[in-house]
Amino acid sequence: MRTLYAWAKNADSTALPQDVGIRIGRQWKLQYLVLQVHYKHPISPESEGDESGFRIHVAQEEPIYLAGLVILLRFNLTIPPNTEKTHGNMNCILNTTEPLIPFAYRVHTHNLGSVVSGYYLKSGQLDFEPIAKGNPQWPQAFYPMEHEIEFHPNDTIFAQCTFNTIGYNIETHIGFADQDEMCLLWIMYYTKSRDPKDQYILCPGEHFEGLNRALPLDSDKPLPRNISLEERASAHDQHAMLQQGNPMDDDHSMLIFTSVLVSAALILTIIVIRSRYTGCCSQTRKKNHIFDDNYKVNSGFKKLPILNGDTESEGE
């Protein structure tokens, strides 16, 4: 399973730069697209439900660059109560074959995160270069890089989540529930490399324990408050991820739309397509309509012919 894209807290859409695409399709052994939506509160049986969706543009022509993700994350961390600053640190070396050009970043924590910062060290150098800094209580979009960056093989990347538990009297741990915490920095980039390992890079925890202590002193300083972004983020209680998986045994191309309601109200959408490259990404809160020129699917299962050209959900 490979994550392609995610958003939360009423975030804006993301568009890939020109001549950049994400490789998908049977011949690349990555054929399922899975949309997973998490909700902070269960959906009331009396409500009309959620109408979130996702728009994907598909093309047959190979782009010049392929898009990918670096995800720095913590799998475990104990966050003590009534503590102004607790750090979750991540770092690793980029074992890539070609340079990576970051163009957007996204930060993610739950309620206790105050700031997430990212840095990198060029191979053989000692000066930290900033990558990104974000407030996880703002809309969790992919924000454009504020300056040009280029990662090279053997560069080291760093991330740090800072948690503030003043007035919070319970010890907190990393987990999936709303009362747990998370710690992630997502870096979206493009590259000329066609090596699959250069399109998805996970950096869990600290490969070099203690090295994050050398980060700049202001790495855990929160950004200035932005009331408008805080209000916008608090207006929505959902987040979503688009993931890519392995192919089915069935050799037929089909489109499947299904909804599953679990304890925390989880909706899955699975799209199976043969086209090779997709542009990314915009979300919509209209009804989930996924169609080509001849077919339209609102619910249940329906086999479709091979999808060519653009495939998208209905506009907002």
> Major beta sheet, specifics?
8 strands, mixed
Topology order in helix (H) and strand (E) letters:
EEEEEEEEEEEEEEEHEEEEEEEE
Counting DSSP E segments of at least 2 residues, the number of strands comes to: 23
The structure class reads mainly beta
User: Which oligomerization state do the chains in this entry correspond to?
Assistant: single chain
Anisotropy-based shape: globular
- Low-confidence segments, given as residue ranges, are 246-316
Portion in strands: 35-45%
SS summary, helix count? 1
Give average pLDDT, whole number: 75
State the end-to-end distance.
Answer: 29 Å
Could you name the key traits of this structure?
single chain; 316 residues; mainly beta; 8-stranded mixed sheet; 6-stranded antiparallel sheet; 3% helix; 40% strand; globular; disordered C terminus
